[in-house]
Amino acid sequence: MENGRAGLCPLFHHAVEVIGKRWSGAIVMLLMRRESARFNELLAAIQGLSDRLLSERLRELEAEGIVDRAVEGSRPVRVSYKLSECGRALEPAIKALGKWADTWVDAAGTRKSA
Prior knowledge:
The chain is of the alpha+beta class. It has a single domain (10-104), classed as Winged helix-like DNA-binding domain superfamily/Winged helix DNA-binding domain (Arc Repressor Mutant, subunit A, Orthogonal Bundle). Helices cover 52% and strands 12% of the residues. It contains six helices and three strands, in the order H-H-E-H-H-E-E-H-H. A three-stranded antiparallel β-sheet has the order 1-3-2. The model has no long low-confidence stretch (mean pLDDT 91).
């Protein structure tokens, strides 16, 4: 990672911004656990996520090459989402973040005392 002018690598910053957007990490984590998922399956699995925001995040993740969108030509048309090779490569980082959260974050979402 090469540092930018302010000492922060712009590639790292971009990666954190993409995955750190609200709900993006949850979407990636769910897709890691499944071969693929349909829109309504993702919507049902993530409490508090609106269909508009899920649609927006899926488009962003697809544009970044993290999620692949597959359209089945049957009637009715079915759309499913899965992680791309690029998205699967995030697995060690997402698992490490989960381990960190288990250690340092309590059920209420606040910092655990050491």
